[in-house]
Specification:
Number of domains: 1
Number of helices: 3
Distance between the termini: 34 Å
Radius of gyration: 12 Å
Largest sheet: none
Order of helices and strands: HHH
Helix content: 55-70%
Amino acid sequence: MVERLLLESQAAAEDFCRVTFDESAPTPVKLAVQLMAAHYFENRDNPDKQSYMAMRMAFENLLYPHRNLDLMF
């Protein structure tokens, strides 16, 4: 289950950044992926909007410097 959450979180990070990441991804990208996976694992039975919004803000802030702005529009 955790492996699946990590894969889905990485896909979300790649979609947000419009970049494909491999094992040599920068540390903030890895942290963002782990943060999202941990959030969904810990909150799988009790969805909490405030908790989600805090996680999402941190996720996006960690990933923002790694976005490919040329592919955004």
